[in-house]
């Protein structure tokens, strides 16, 4: 586990493809293909932020701006770096990017059994609005959650 200070949030870009693929594989079991990651990193309507330490991507969050909504597509933290607040930092940075992109609401799906992620989202004020039964590959249900974004919170320390 890294105990030295962590670098500030940085926007993800196409040059981060290999690092995003590696963290995706490590933290999420390979959620997206290289082509999906490439599209994610090239599209200006798909903000992404990451935290690095000594060149290694430790945490990242990605979203998709659709009209006035930020659809959060991914939050990942390297397993050895969990429970250090990195998920909170990247999510905070992504929400700030969404606000700067004129989003007034944020939405996401979270596995019903993922207690850590649910606690993270609860801490930001996300509220459950529905369920997608059998949404995930393993058959788990997804809880659909929403958050109203406050435009006065558009800034985020260390990013933008």
Structural overview:
With 160 residues, the protein is an alpha+beta fold. It has a single domain, classed as Aminopeptidase, CATH 3.40.630. Strand 4, helix 3 and strand 5 form a beta-alpha-beta unit. The radius of gyration is 15 Å and the shape is globular. The chain has 4 helices and 7 strands; from the N terminus they run βααβββαβαββ. It has a 7-stranded mixed sheet.
Enter the CATH topology name.
Answer: Aminopeptidase
Proportion of β residues?
Answer: 25-35%
- Relevant CATH superfamily: Gcn5-related N-acetyltransferase (GNAT)
Number of domains: 1
Give the fraction of residues assigned to helices. 25-40%
Question: Could you write a compact summary of the structure shown?
Answer:
By secondary structure, the chain is of the alpha+beta class. Helix content is about 30%, strand content about 30%. It has one domain: Gcn5-related N-acetyltransferase (GNAT) (Aminopeptidase).
């Amino acid at each position: 586990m890294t105990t030295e200070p962590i670098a500030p949030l940085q926007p993800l870009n196409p040059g981060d493809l290999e690092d995003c693929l590696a963290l995706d594989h490590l933290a999420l079991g390979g959620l997206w293909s290289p082509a999906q990651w490439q599209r994610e990193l090239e599209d200006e309507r798909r903000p992404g932020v990451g935290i690095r330490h000594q060149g290694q991507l430790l945490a990242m969050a990605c979203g998709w701006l659709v009209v006035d909504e930020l659809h959060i597509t991914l939050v990942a933290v390297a397993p050895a770096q969990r429970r250090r607040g990195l998920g909170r930092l990247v999510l905070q940075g992504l929400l700030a990017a969404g606000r700067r992109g004129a989003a007034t609401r944020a939405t996401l799906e979270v596995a019903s059994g993922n207690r850590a992620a649910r606690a993270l989202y609860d801490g930001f004020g996300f509220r459950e609005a529905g369920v997608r039964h059998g949404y995930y590959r393993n058959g788990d249900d997804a809880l659909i959650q929403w958050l109203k974004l406050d435009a006065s919170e558009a800034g985020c320390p260390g990013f933008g």
